[in-house]
## 1
Amino acid sequence: MALSALSPAELDRALESAPPGRLAQTLSRLTALFLEQAPRLGEPHIAVFDEAILRLSRDIEFSARVELAERLARVEKAPPQVVKDLAFDDRIEVSGPVLEHSPCLSHAALLQIASTKGPPQMLAISRRSSVHERVSDVLILRGDREVALSLAANPGAKLSERGCTKLARRAAADSALAEALVARAGFPAELARELAEVARQRAEQALAQEFGSAENVGEAVEAATFRAAQSAGQGSPADDFADALLYVSRLSKSERLDERNIAGWARAGRMDRAIAGLAYIARIPVQAVARAIMRRTMNPC
């Protein structure tokens, strides 16, 4: 008799007769049977498999639960009770695959897990192809830096206005998070401008600590950038910093990168090197420095 035709009582007897030492093998075969038939099964038949797999999966060893989670994580018509049970497992090896990939988890379940579980589970949720903004809000509130970075870099994670504001506040002291937010499509323009200005300030502070004063360097960079922007009419005078960053990196390794280099490049109009030098010394993304300087020079008042 096919499993999908069993009554609840017959299912109970079938599971009770399974040899205790072979539960994992029985579960593996049952899961394989489900995966084979899943595209053709209706909800009543999926419910039967759901009940059977759920009962077996709660009594098997850890490695078998990990395998089950990996096999069901991306299945569109996976047994819903089983997927939810795996998602709530405290061991990330079990819960991780379904939290990150399963299309069968409801927003309510994800919200509950984000509200109660630890950083590994929150990180897995933040990597989903689609994250509801209510879930994102909880992850931003409870999550650590890695979770915040993951959300910021995930285009499928929807961010509420409140969530964007909280991330921007955290990004004021985190250059990597600031760069991810500034580069994110749809991120509020005003918050992006504020982050760019913070990046500029951090660069100047780093220069001051490194060389005693960043005032002369900052003035030279601004003046040269303003002249370049006026002559170009629009846009950044240096859109590609790859060569400049390589040059600056080599100069730094030979211990010949200092304030005079940056000021000299600025006076000579080599804004790619001047901006790359600022970014390298300040340890912040070069594009963030470029955007901050362009904003300041194009709006000097």
Note: Confidence is low (pLDDT under 50) at residues 1-7, 223-238.
## 2
Amino acid sequence: MSENCKLSNNERLVLDVLGRETGPMSAYMILDKLRGSGFRAPLQVYRALEKLIGMGRVHRLESLNAFIACSHMSCEKIGVAAFVICERCEHVQEVCDDSVSLFLAGLAEKTNFKASKTSIELRGVCDACEKA
């Protein structure tokens, strides 16, 4: 709870909405949920999201152009999160693994490359949908 004290009111509201949802949300979906809380423009949501992403509290799913709350508070320390996204039910599972971070750091070093952003998304069909 003390970490939430560092958040602005808008950041706290956006994070709360994402935390209550079971799936990814677009900025406009977030805006729709927060209109009653004084949000009037997408820019308010995007600013809050940008800060929350910078804090490691929210992730952007590039392929879905959507956002989810971080489910592993260790992401900030590990540095890399991967996402497994079901194309049928759109369930997203966040995976934090030191081996992924080490592999990418080694790859960047081997190629003399300084990465500014990393996004790993595996898309396919989850086990539940496959069995259905």
Note: The first strand starts at residue 58 and ends at 61.
## 3
Amino acid sequence: MQRMGMMIGLEPDKVAEYKRLHADVWPGVLKMISDCNIRNYSIYLKEPENLLFGYWEYHGEDFAADAAKMAADPETQRWWDVCMPCQIPLETRKDGEWWAMMEEVFHLD
């Protein structure tokens, strides 16, 4: 299992919409997340800075393949089309990232 964390900004005028969307995530999107071996997925919001922190645990063998499977899913693509206009990618993210991936520097079970 691999723990993964990521960050992105949130448009100030889209906070309520983003919360509403994530209070009722589409069932097909939730199924695809599970089908791609992602478990224990949470998104946290820090206001007033409007920063989102996402965390999940990846239980698969090939994250790149599972990420590609998710990205190819039409319902997930439609979900991203709704969510992405709410988000502000960090200027410091790596090439190819939307959410900026983070390095785990500490963990205690």
Note: The beta strands are 2-10, 38-46, 51-58, 87-88, 100-102.
## 4
Amino acid sequence: MKKIMKKVWKIIRIPIYVILALYFGVVIYRIPAAIERSDTAEIVADIHSQKLMMKDVLGENLPPKPNEKLNNSTLEGIDANNNGIRDDVELAIFKLYPDSASIRSGALQYAKAMQMHFRKDITNSKIFVAVLQEKSRGGSCFYQALPSDDVRSAKTNEEMSKAFAVLDIQKEKLYNIIMNTNERKNKEEENYEKYMTSMGDIGGNDCDIDPLVLSN
């Protein structure tokens, strides 16, 4: 019996070793992909967790004016108060909209989302889509905060188009404040070229801070 078992083992051991080697090879091969998926999920969750704070809207922690040369020497620029909004952009928004907390809120949220284009951990489409979803929310919140009497009173498609064109000018002005150098604009374009894919929105409210809780 023992001799038979030894003969059987000699016959089947090589296929067993091959199967085991293949199995462990597949496991080892898939480990980096599993780690990447885990890292991506964490980064996406972090992006969606970055919310505008009321103290930022009210200007309770405004940063000092940054050195322009130093601020523009990197894509990220200077964020002295560490709220995810570049300091020169934050100060410009308060200068543009000193009397409207609701417009400032929408503008700051949009700026905070746009700043995410400069994250160094944008390495795949899922992460980039998360950035675009926050950008979409911020842009929509900004539109909602802008005076829109012309939009509400528009009776024709032409009047509606003209009303939205006025809002687009305000958004373009804000965009140019945020993307104020060719390097920053090029980085945004690079992200689109490398990682753009189909996407949907994430649902829920567009505004991090409900405009109804703001006094003006």
Note: The radius of gyration is 26 Å.
